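Sample entry (70 residues):
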Amino acid sequence: MKRINKALALIALASSSAAFAATDFDTLDVDGSGTISQAEASVDAKLMSMFSELDTDQNGELSKEEFSEA
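Predicted structure, serialized as tokens:
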């Protein structure tokens, strides 16, 4: 059920016009985990293009500190 809710939230975010202008960490952190996954970052093309270089610890997620370097 948790995965379904996360998927629905990502779909809703991706389909909103505001999603493409989202640059706020908390807006992109759809599941409230305190990190931005690649799936969450995928709604922002600029962030996705920088994701690998921003993910300095290479854990597949961006912390607030890593995101602030964008």
